[in-house]
């Protein structure tokens, strides 16, 4: 293995398992493939040899029995009644902002997933995962006098736990993403309607604002229509820093975590054909 940027030159990597009935390595078309076999624990040794020095690391892994779960699509989960347990499979597509979680994406839709820091540490952007959680709305609000619903809030899978992580660096599907709207269409959305699982492809300029009291990002179109991007600070959206005052293509959705109003949320931006995904929780 050679990597000039990391000053690595002609390092040979060797992999071994202390119990090949549990997990083992094999070479396929010149690539080393890691495979599992039977339930149990084994110690994996990774050894690096540069001709003079030998470095090694040992980690223990456990192969568990596969759980049989009733997987449904994200589109089906969105339409389920609230407070239902769901099992979903999809790609970890982008980070939530100011929340511990991510957007899960399959070919049928997109849904926000809230989890714990421990669970989030087990996954990376692009991983293909199966999760278990409770589909619900958060941020619902009611009139204090009449108790009538005034905002549906945000659709989310909360208390999510990882069932399986198949890993990988997959590109998420954009099949469910929509076109035909502009930034103006997202201003003053009806809070009694669900919009937080819809992703649209739009074009807008990235605007950064800094005062003595706050920093934040917004999006602006050619008619000076502007919508804020949800965050507690502009620092949470640092993936936008290099694109201030630049017009970009945006995979755009909205959120309403507190029931007040819908505000913007960005899955990714596209600049000269390069996709820059919101990685706020995955730095």
Automatic annotation (TrEMBL):
This is Uncharacterized protein. It comes from the Bacteria. SUPFAM superfamilies: Hypothetical protein YgiW. It comes from Haploplasma axanthum (Acholeplasma axanthum). InterPro entries: BOBF_sf.
């Amino acid at each position: 293995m050679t990597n000039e940027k990391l000053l690595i030159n002609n390092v040979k990597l060797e992999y071994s398992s202390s119990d090949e009935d549990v997990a083992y390595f094999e070479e396929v078309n010149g690539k080393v493939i890691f495979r599992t076999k039977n339930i149990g624990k084994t110690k994996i040794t990774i050894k690096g040899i540069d001709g003079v020095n030998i470095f090694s690391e040992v980690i223990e892994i456990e192969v568990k029995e596969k759980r049989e779960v009733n997987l449904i699509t994200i589109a089906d989960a969105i339409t389920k009644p609230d407070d239902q347990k769901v099992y979903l499979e999809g790609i970890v597509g982008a980070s939530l902002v100011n929340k511990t979680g991510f957007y899960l994406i399959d070919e049928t839709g997109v849904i926000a997933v809230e989890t714990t820091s421990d669970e989030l540490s087990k996954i990376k952007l692009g991983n293909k995962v199966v999760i278990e959680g409770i589909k619900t709305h958060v941020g619902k609000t009611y009139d204090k006098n009449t108790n009538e619903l005034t905002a549906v809030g945000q659709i989310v899978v909360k208390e999510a736990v990882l069932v399986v992580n198949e890993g990988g660096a997959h590109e998420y599907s954009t099949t469910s993403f929509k076109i035909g709207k502009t930034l103006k269409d997202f201003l003053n959305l009806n809070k009694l309607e669900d919009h937080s699982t819809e992703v649209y492809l739009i074009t807008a300029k990235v605007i950064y604002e800094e005062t003595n009291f706050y920093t934040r990002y917004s999006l602006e179109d050619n008619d000076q229509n502007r919508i804020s991007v949800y965050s507690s600070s502009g620092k949470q959206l640092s993936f936008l820093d290099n694109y201030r005052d630049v017009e970009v293509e945006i995979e755009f959705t909205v959120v309403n975590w507190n029931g007040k109003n819908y505000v913007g949320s960005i899955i990714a931006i596209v600049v000269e054909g390069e996709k820059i995904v919101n990685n706020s929780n995955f730095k």
